[in-house]
Amino acid sequence: MSVFHLIAPSGYCLQQQAAQRGVARLEAEGHQVEHQTAIARRHQRFAGTDAERLADLNALATLPCAVDIVMPVRGGYGMSRLLDGVDYDALLARQAADPLLICGHSDFTAFQLALLAKGNAITFSGPMLAGNFGAETLDAFTRHHFWLALREPTFTLAWQGSGPACTVSGQVWGGNLAMIASLMGTPWMPAIDGGILVVEDINEHPFRVERMLLQLFYAGVLDKQRALVLGSFSGSSPNDYDAGYDFNEMCAGLRARLPIPVISGLAFGHEPQTVTLPLGAQGRLAHDGEQTTLTLTGHPVLR
């Protein structure tokens, strides 16, 4: 059984009942859940003052060795306000000596990519307390893939993808697309050559998704990757004004423009069903026109 340490670096958790349900579910499985006071903490729209939320992050460097997993209560805006106050040297030293398995997504992507940019530290893009473990029914697929990623030093994801046939290898990175775009031009944007970029988002119209991906393309980021993998894009339905321009049309336009394969269909993101990806691990992506596999290795796992 594992020791979870909760942090709340972003938005206040409106779903207090869900968060408590998540704690109860983890404890019922025999896990220990620490720092539960972060769940109810609030300042304006945030899960505490900037100082309180930043303290959550910087305290990770000195957590006891008994702690296995670090998990945010939820996402929501707030992480961007903290990036310039993080003690990266201390955190990276801790991760090199005794790595915590840090898992989250959404707004938390900014912190994860900052650690990757500053010291190539691997974290996990995956479920969080309230939205996933606190759901009325914990999705079996999500639970399985969470523990798979955190326990197995090598594992393979398989799905029915769409896109051109390809076989590529490289460093897997990415997360929430809006957060990645927001890091452009900052010290916290990883400079990864020959990578496999995996992105997802929620409540972004297809034209906004396209605009953010074109920003990465025009900035030279996509040219340096070996493949782009599209995860879940919840709430991206078109409207009458679009006149046939939908997510699939957007993907087709990207494939015609980008010099790298674009593979879609991965269950990764804000949906109840999501895989867990070690950001910074090595990956081998293979797509035969129908079936896609992504094999990951080189990430830390539970002791």
Automatic annotation (TrEMBL):
<dbReference type="InterPro" id="IPR029062">
    <property type="entry name" value="Class_I_gatase-like"/>
</dbReference>
<feature type="domain" description="LD-carboxypeptidase N-terminal">
    <location>
        <begin position="6"/>
        <end position="126"/>
    </location>
</feature>
<dbReference type="InterPro" id="IPR003507">
    <property type="entry name" value="S66_fam"/>
</dbReference>
<keyword id="KW-0378">Hydrolase</keyword>
<dbReference type="InterPro" id="IPR040921">
    <property type="entry name" value="Peptidase_S66C"/>
</dbReference>
<dbReference type="InterPro" id="IPR027461">
    <property type="entry name" value="Carboxypeptidase_A_C_sf"/>
</dbReference>
<keyword id="KW-0645">Protease</keyword>
<keyword id="KW-0720">Serine protease</keyword>
<feature type="domain" description="LD-carboxypeptidase C-terminal">
    <location>
        <begin position="169"/>
        <end position="285"/>
    </location>
</feature>
<dbReference type="Pfam" id="PF02016">
    <property type="entry name" value="Peptidase_S66"/>
</dbReference>
<dbReference type="GO" id="GO:0106415">
    <property type="term" value="F:muramoyltetrapeptide carboxypeptidase activity"/>
</dbReference>
<comment type="similarity">
    <text>Belongs to the peptidase S66 family.</text>
</comment>
<dbReference type="InterPro" id="IPR040449">
    <property type="entry name" value="Peptidase_S66_N"/>
</dbReference>
<protein>
    <submittedName>
        <fullName>Muramoyltetrapeptide carboxypeptidase</fullName>
        <ecNumber>3.4.17.13</ecNumber>
    </submittedName>
</protein>
<dbReference type="InterPro" id="IPR027478">
    <property type="entry name" value="LdcA_N"/>
</dbReference>
<dbReference type="Pfam" id="PF17676">
    <property type="entry name" value="Peptidase_S66C"/>
</dbReference>
<keyword id="KW-0121">Carboxypeptidase</keyword>
